[in-house]
Amino acid sequence: MNTNPESNSVSSYTYLREFPELIPLVRKLIEEKPLDDIDRFNLNDLANAVGWSIEDISEELRNIWRDPLDRVDRYKNMFEKYYENAINLIKKDPQQVAEKLWGAVAALIKLHASLKRVFIAAWDHGKLYNYVTNSIERVHRDLFYNLLTSGEVLHRYFYEEDLDKETFNIFWSKTLQLLDEAKQIVYKLYARTFSRE
Question: How many whole angstroms from its chain centre is CA 72?
Protein backbone atom coordinates (compact mmCIF):
# COMPACT_ATOMS: atom_id res chain seq x y z
CA MET A 1 0.00 0.00 0.00
CA ASN A 2 1.28 3.45 -0.88
CA THR A 3 1.06 5.44 2.35
CA ASN A 4 3.23 8.37 1.30
CA PRO A 5 1.07 11.23 -0.05
CA GLU A 6 4.14 12.77 -1.69
CA SER A 7 4.53 9.74 -3.92
CA ASN A 8 0.99 10.30 -5.24
CA SER A 9 2.21 13.49 -6.90
CA VAL A 10 5.13 11.56 -8.37
CA SER A 11 2.74 8.86 -9.61
CA SER A 12 0.46 11.47 -11.21
CA TYR A 13 3.45 13.18 -12.79
CA THR A 14 4.61 9.85 -14.22
CA TYR A 15 1.25 9.40 -15.95
CA LEU A 16 1.41 12.90 -17.36
CA ARG A 17 4.88 12.14 -18.73
CA GLU A 18 3.37 9.09 -20.45
CA PHE A 19 0.60 11.26 -21.87
CA PRO A 20 2.31 14.66 -22.46
CA GLU A 21 -0.59 15.89 -24.59
CA LEU A 22 -2.60 16.04 -21.37
CA ILE A 23 -0.35 18.54 -19.61
CA PRO A 24 -1.82 21.67 -21.29
CA LEU A 25 -5.33 20.24 -20.84
CA VAL A 26 -4.81 19.54 -17.13
CA ARG A 27 -3.34 23.01 -16.64
CA LYS A 28 -6.31 24.66 -18.36
CA LEU A 29 -8.82 22.61 -16.38
CA ILE A 30 -7.14 23.47 -13.09
CA GLU A 31 -6.88 27.16 -13.99
CA GLU A 32 -10.41 27.14 -15.48
CA LYS A 33 -9.17 28.51 -18.80
CA PRO A 34 -10.97 28.00 -22.12
CA LEU A 35 -10.23 24.77 -23.97
CA ASP A 36 -9.17 24.71 -27.61
CA ASP A 37 -10.14 22.08 -30.20
CA ILE A 38 -7.18 19.83 -29.35
CA ASP A 39 -8.04 19.98 -25.65
CA ARG A 40 -11.67 19.11 -26.35
CA PHE A 41 -10.58 16.24 -28.61
CA ASN A 42 -8.26 14.84 -25.91
CA LEU A 43 -10.92 15.26 -23.23
CA ASN A 44 -13.51 13.50 -25.38
CA ASP A 45 -11.04 10.73 -26.21
CA LEU A 46 -10.33 10.13 -22.51
CA ALA A 47 -14.03 10.16 -21.62
CA ASN A 48 -14.67 7.60 -24.34
CA ALA A 49 -11.83 5.36 -23.14
CA VAL A 50 -13.13 5.34 -19.57
CA GLY A 51 -16.84 5.37 -20.31
CA TRP A 52 -17.34 8.44 -18.14
CA SER A 53 -18.95 11.76 -18.92
CA ILE A 54 -16.88 14.78 -19.99
CA GLU A 55 -17.67 16.35 -16.61
CA ASP A 56 -16.41 13.32 -14.68
CA ILE A 57 -13.18 12.99 -16.65
CA SER A 58 -12.60 16.76 -16.37
CA GLU A 59 -13.05 16.55 -12.62
CA GLU A 60 -10.65 13.59 -12.54
CA LEU A 61 -7.96 15.55 -14.39
CA ARG A 62 -8.43 18.67 -12.26
CA ASN A 63 -7.71 16.55 -9.20
CA ILE A 64 -4.92 14.40 -10.63
CA TRP A 65 -2.49 15.63 -7.95
CA ARG A 66 -4.69 14.82 -4.97
CA ASP A 67 -4.06 11.88 -2.69
CA PRO A 68 -6.23 9.05 -4.10
CA LEU A 69 -7.55 8.31 -0.61
CA ASP A 70 -9.18 11.76 -0.66
CA ARG A 71 -11.10 10.68 -3.78
CA VAL A 72 -12.68 7.50 -2.36
CA ASP A 73 -16.18 8.90 -1.96
CA ARG A 74 -16.03 10.46 -5.43
CA TYR A 75 -15.25 7.07 -7.05
CA LYS A 76 -17.86 5.29 -4.92
CA ASN A 77 -20.50 7.81 -6.03
CA MET A 78 -19.39 7.53 -9.66
CA PHE A 79 -19.58 3.74 -9.51
CA GLU A 80 -23.09 3.87 -8.09
CA LYS A 81 -24.19 6.50 -10.65
CA TYR A 82 -22.93 4.58 -13.70
CA TYR A 83 -24.19 1.26 -12.33
CA GLU A 84 -27.66 2.68 -11.69
CA ASN A 85 -27.74 4.39 -15.10
CA ALA A 86 -26.91 1.06 -16.76
CA ILE A 87 -29.67 -0.74 -14.89
CA ASN A 88 -32.22 1.97 -15.72
CA LEU A 89 -31.36 2.02 -19.44
CA ILE A 90 -31.38 -1.73 -20.12
CA LYS A 91 -34.77 -1.76 -21.87
CA LYS A 92 -34.23 1.54 -23.69
CA ASP A 93 -30.73 1.72 -25.13
CA PRO A 94 -28.37 -1.30 -25.04
CA GLN A 95 -25.53 0.75 -26.52
CA GLN A 96 -25.65 3.29 -23.70
CA VAL A 97 -26.09 0.48 -21.17
CA ALA A 98 -22.85 -1.08 -22.40
CA GLU A 99 -20.92 2.17 -21.96
CA LYS A 100 -22.44 2.97 -18.56
CA LEU A 101 -21.57 -0.49 -17.31
CA TRP A 102 -17.98 -0.05 -18.54
CA GLY A 103 -17.90 3.30 -16.71
CA ALA A 104 -19.03 1.51 -13.54
CA VAL A 105 -16.28 -1.12 -13.96
CA ALA A 106 -13.61 1.60 -14.32
CA ALA A 107 -14.99 3.55 -11.35
CA LEU A 108 -15.06 0.44 -9.13
CA ILE A 109 -11.42 -0.36 -9.91
CA LYS A 110 -10.49 3.30 -9.31
CA LEU A 111 -12.33 3.05 -5.98
CA HIS A 112 -10.29 -0.02 -5.01
CA ALA A 113 -7.08 1.74 -6.06
CA SER A 114 -7.93 4.90 -4.15
CA LEU A 115 -8.56 2.85 -1.00
CA LYS A 116 -4.98 1.61 -1.38
CA ARG A 117 -3.77 5.15 -2.17
CA VAL A 118 -2.71 4.19 -5.69
CA PHE A 119 -3.35 6.46 -8.65
CA ILE A 120 -4.19 4.68 -11.90
CA ALA A 121 -5.04 6.27 -15.23
CA ALA A 122 -8.42 4.70 -15.93
CA TRP A 123 -8.23 5.76 -19.57
CA ASP A 124 -5.37 3.31 -20.12
CA HIS A 125 -6.88 -0.18 -20.11
CA GLY A 126 -3.46 -1.77 -19.69
CA LYS A 127 -3.00 0.18 -16.46
CA LEU A 128 -6.25 -1.28 -15.14
CA TYR A 129 -5.04 -4.82 -15.85
CA ASN A 130 -1.61 -4.03 -14.37
CA TYR A 131 -3.28 -2.69 -11.25
CA VAL A 132 -5.22 -5.94 -10.86
CA THR A 133 -2.02 -7.97 -11.27
CA ASN A 134 -0.01 -5.92 -8.80
CA SER A 135 -2.54 -4.70 -6.24
CA ILE A 136 -5.57 -6.98 -6.06
CA GLU A 137 -5.27 -9.87 -3.63
CA ARG A 138 -4.35 -13.06 -5.49
CA VAL A 139 -7.56 -14.80 -4.42
CA HIS A 140 -9.64 -12.11 -6.20
CA ARG A 141 -7.52 -11.47 -9.31
CA ASP A 142 -9.39 -13.79 -11.67
CA LEU A 143 -12.66 -12.12 -10.73
CA PHE A 144 -11.26 -8.68 -11.56
CA TYR A 145 -9.56 -9.90 -14.77
CA ASN A 146 -12.84 -11.46 -15.90
CA LEU A 147 -14.71 -8.27 -14.98
CA LEU A 148 -12.36 -6.16 -17.08
CA THR A 149 -12.48 -8.56 -20.02
CA SER A 150 -16.26 -8.85 -20.00
CA GLY A 151 -16.67 -5.10 -19.48
CA GLU A 152 -14.35 -4.38 -22.42
CA VAL A 153 -16.57 -6.47 -24.71
CA LEU A 154 -19.47 -4.18 -23.78
CA HIS A 155 -17.26 -1.10 -24.16
CA ARG A 156 -16.37 -2.22 -27.70
CA TYR A 157 -20.05 -2.88 -28.41
CA PHE A 158 -20.77 0.77 -27.63
CA TYR A 159 -18.65 1.76 -30.63
CA GLU A 160 -19.11 -1.15 -32.99
CA GLU A 161 -22.57 -2.60 -32.25
CA ASP A 162 -21.01 -5.93 -33.15
CA LEU A 163 -23.05 -8.23 -30.91
CA ASP A 164 -26.44 -9.71 -31.66
CA LYS A 165 -29.10 -9.36 -28.98
CA GLU A 166 -28.51 -12.79 -27.42
CA THR A 167 -24.73 -12.34 -27.24
CA PHE A 168 -25.16 -8.84 -25.81
CA ASN A 169 -27.49 -10.22 -23.11
CA ILE A 170 -24.96 -12.91 -22.19
CA PHE A 171 -22.18 -10.35 -21.73
CA TRP A 172 -24.52 -7.91 -19.96
CA SER A 173 -25.56 -10.61 -17.45
CA LYS A 174 -22.00 -11.86 -17.00
CA THR A 175 -20.59 -8.37 -16.46
CA LEU A 176 -23.37 -7.49 -14.04
CA GLN A 177 -22.76 -10.66 -12.01
CA LEU A 178 -18.99 -10.07 -11.91
CA LEU A 179 -19.52 -6.42 -11.01
CA ASP A 180 -21.79 -7.38 -8.11
CA GLU A 181 -19.18 -9.86 -6.81
CA ALA A 182 -16.33 -7.34 -7.17
CA LYS A 183 -18.44 -4.63 -5.53
CA GLN A 184 -18.78 -6.78 -2.39
CA ILE A 185 -14.99 -7.11 -2.16
CA VAL A 186 -14.36 -3.41 -2.72
CA TYR A 187 -17.10 -2.31 -0.31
CA LYS A 188 -15.64 -4.59 2.40
CA LEU A 189 -12.25 -2.92 1.85
CA TYR A 190 -14.02 0.46 2.04
CA ALA A 191 -15.64 -0.48 5.38
CA ARG A 192 -12.33 -1.79 6.78
CA THR A 193 -10.42 1.30 5.66
CA PHE A 194 -12.78 3.75 7.29
CA SER A 195 -13.46 1.70 10.43
CA ARG A 196 -9.79 2.20 11.40
CA GLU A 197 -10.12 5.96 11.58
Answer: 12
Q: How far is CA 179 from each of CA 49, 76, 112, 150, 151, rounded to the nearest angstrom?
A: 19, 13, 13, 10, 9
- pLDDT tens digits for range 51-72: 999 999 999 999 988 899 999 9
- Cα–Cα distance between 171 and 176 in angstroms, integer? 8
The predicted model scores a pTM of: 0.87
Q: What is the CA radius of gyration of the chain?
A: 17
Backbone angles phi, psi at 35, to 5 degrees: -95, 140
Of 68, 47, 82, 98, residue with least CA distance to 183: 82
d(CA 129, CA 145): 7
Number of domains making up the chain:
1
Cα dist. 87→46, 80, 83, 91, 158 in Å?
23, 11, 6, 9, 16
| Percent composition of the chain: helix, strand, coil (DSSP 3-state, to 5) | 80, 0, 20
CA-nearest of 57, 159, 61, 51 to 106 is 51
Q: What pLDDT, on a 0 to 100 scale, did the predictor assign at position 196? A: 64
CB atoms within 10 A of CB 175: 26
pLDDT band for position 185 (cuts 50, 70, 90): very high
**Domain of 33?**
5-195
Q: What is the pLDDT of residues 101-145, one digit of tens each?
A: 999 999 999 999 999 999 888 788 899 999 999 999 999 999 999
